[in-house]
Amino acid sequence: MENFLQLTFTGLTNGAIFALVGLGFVLIYKASDVINFAQGDFLLVGAYIAYGFIVQVGLPWGIGVLLAMAAAVLLGIFVERLILRPLIGEPIISVIMVTIGLSSLLRAIVNGIWGTTGRAFPSFLPDTPVNIGGALIPMDRFIALLIVSVLLAGFMLFFRYSKEGIAMRATADDQQAALSMGISVKRIFAIAWSIAAVVAAIAGIIVANIVELNGAAVAGIGLRVFPVVILGGLDSIPGAILGGIIIGLLETYTAGYTPPELGLSAVIPFIVLILILMVKPYGLFGEVRIERV
Amino acid sequence: MLALNNVEVIYNDVILVLKGMSLEVPSGKIVALLGSNGAGKSTTLKAVSGLLKPEDGEVTDGEIVFEDTPIHHLDAADVVKRGIFQVMEGRRVFEHLDVEQNLIAGSYTRRDRNEVRDDIEMVYRYFPRLKERRRQTAGYLSGGEQQMLAIGRGLMARPKLMMLDEPSLGLAPLLVEEIFQIINRINKEQGTTILLVEQNARIALDVADYAYIMENGRIVLTGEPTQLRDNADVREFYLGLNEVGTRKSYRDVKHYKRRKRWLS
After folding, report:
1. Nearest-CA residue of chain A relative to B95?
2. Which of A39, A264, B151, B214 is the most buried (most CB within 10 A)?
3. Which residues touch A217 (CB under 8 Å, ≥6 apart)?
């Protein structure tokens, strides 16, 4: 029972982090129909910039995190200006290919500056264990869960009620019609990429805090999030949340209850993914393409 | 209010679509722009609203003047801010947003939030059916309701000039009648100037104060609706009327192939 609780909480926090990273995917996909393969590297860049400010420059962690978020906003604007704007009017698949290139580029820059060995991230979130029904859960996981819940709730409200959020969804629906409303599509793209980069930076910092700062580990989350967003539906925020939690729990349960040498925990999420897609091809909450007959 | 002087539009650097197009829309009036497929009507509207760029079109000559300032080099967003709103052909509602969110999207360029709420109610007064469907996903509305939403969304921007591209497209005759009545009311009650592009010449001539007929990228005939309705060529090619009472002989059928007089 204690083991079960332990696994459940670990799964929930992992899931919440997946959901946060998935949110970045969803944002970009919702606004521009682009699947951003560089999302994992956004995590890495955010975490390393925070590391640079806190450890190497020696700033207090709060300021370091804020600066890392500001840097993420700049990264988003930079990506829009230099990469997306020249590609306006080109097929979506070209843009998606470019994000793969962007992923390699960002990884190379990070490796060039900070090297490839893992680094100890200053753990500013307290990790004193909390006892819940006999299971010991580190405090930082609870804090992560809280941060993620607040962010996710905020974004749901943003897309439903705010003018900018509605404009983003309108752009995703029909770019030319959005233009005719006076919505600046360039601005919407810049906002979407900036928010995605900020969310990724926050996720990256949390991951680096809980695990460690290591290129493969942090950026690898970007890849593990694919089943999450496809499961939940590429364009649905509730989908990203539920998908994140499902995959997070599945991973930890399989890791906890099956012999580790089988390595099933990496496979099970994808098997579930295939099963669900057979029944619901747009994912759990994905937007069904509307066709009037 | 709006004037096009000798405007030339080229797509993809080679295809000349507008060849010296001139047109004038006086403030507070309804002006109809008629013409057959491919005449360049939609291109004219897009040239005004700044929507040519995404389609690789460009105004290469002439000028478009709105309230004494040239606007042919402006971005679509700036054109909307100046008070010109194009209701695009084929309705183009945001399918996955609900009705009210579509209306909010239409008010994107405005800063006065409280008045936006009032204007949503105003749109509902013009189109009560939209109010019943306010929380429904726009993609599932009927064609007529979508056209109402597209026009209502235009009203939300509070434009001085509203350009409607084929509002009758694909709608049942009764609905067309209803929508044109509302267009007329919007013009009279809100004082919105309207530039109307239509293939349905009969109904467009009913509401318009002035009409232009366009062919092959230029204006070929202009006048008030009463004058145009009496023009033999307009009667034949746009209204589908023939001399009443005459028996159709083989010569008459052949006669249908004669050149339009304005092409000579």
Report:
1. A173
2. A39
3. A118, A207, A211
Beta-strand relationship, B30-35 and B193-198: parallel
Spans of chain B below 70 pLDDT: 240-261, 263-264
Q: What CA–CA distances, in Å, run from B141 to A82, A88, A173, B155? A: 39, 30, 16, 19
| Nearest residue to B44 (alpha-carbon basis) of B234, B219, B221, B262 | B219
How far apart are the C-alpha atoms of B64 and B42, rounded to whole Å?
A: 15
Contacting A with CB below 8 Å, chain B residues are 49, 51, 54, 56, 75-77, 79-81, 85-86, 88, 92-97, 101-102, 104-109, 137, 139-140, 143, 153, 157
Distance from chain centroid for Cα A66: 18
Cα–Cα distance for residue pair A284/A286, rounded to 1 Å: 6
DSSP-derived secondary structure for B158-172: --SEEEEE-TTTT--
C-alpha distance from B208 to closest chain A C-alpha (Å): 24
Residues of A in contact with B101 (CB under 8 A): 166, 169-170
pLDDT for A291 beyond 60: yes
Q: What is the pLDDT of residues A28-39, one digit of tens each?
A: 887 877 888 898
Burial class (CB within 10 angstroms; exposed 0-12, middle 13-18, buried 19+) of A275: exposed
The model carries a pTM of 0.84
Tokens of A124: 């500013």
| H-run or E-run covering B76 | helix B76-82
Q: Do A290 and B109 touch (CB under 8 A)?
A: no
Q: Identify which of B51, B81, B106 has the shortest CB distance to residue A176.
A: B51
CA distance A79 to A97: 14
